[in-house]
Write a structure and sequence with these properties.
The protein folds into two domains: about 1-30; about 40-125, no CATH class. The chain is built from two helices and seven strands; from the N terminus they run H-E-E-H-E-E-E-E-E. The chain has helices at about 5-30, 55-65; strands at about 40-45, 50-55, 85, 90-100, 105, 120, 125. It is elongated and about 80 Å long.
């Protein structure tokens, strides 16, 4: 292979690599959209007043990005999320499970992030 052919091939590989890198970095910087579909909603309940919240992925993301809607505690693990309750005016809103038999909303943790075991047979949290 002649030196001119080698240089041309090397230049083509370099251009292809640069175009690929530019595409990769441009694509990874795009904003992700979250659906606003009620069938994908997660259930949340205030452990103090019992107010129910059904948050779509879009609403959840908006609340999570809000500076005043989510408790930011360095002692919490990344899995614990506690939201602000507008009725109680406190950080008391935690994930909930809905008992299909009774329709009762049961918190999965307390506002401090401690898990609350749920007795599935009675539809009550333990200790109630």
């Amino acid at each position: 292979m002649s030196p001119a052919a080698k240089n041309g091939l090397m230049l083509a590989v370099l251009v292809l690599a640069l175009v690929g890198a530019a595409f990769f970095f441009k694509r990874s910087g795009t904003e992700r959209t979250y659906p606003d579909d009620p069938t994908l909603a997660t259930q949340w309940v205030c452990v103090k007043c019992g107010k129910h919240y059904s948050l779509t992925p879009s609403q959840y993301k908006a609340w999570l990005d809000s500076k005043d809607k989510v408790r930011r505690d360095p002692n919490f693990s990344g899995r614990i999320v506690v939201f602000w309750c507008d009725d109680c005016r406190e950080f008391q809103v935690v994930r909930a499970k809905v008992d299909r038999a009774t329709g009762k909303w049961l918190p999965t943790s307390d506002a401090a992030g401690n898990p609350i075991p749920v007795n599935a047979d009675a539809g009550k949290t333990e200790g109630q």
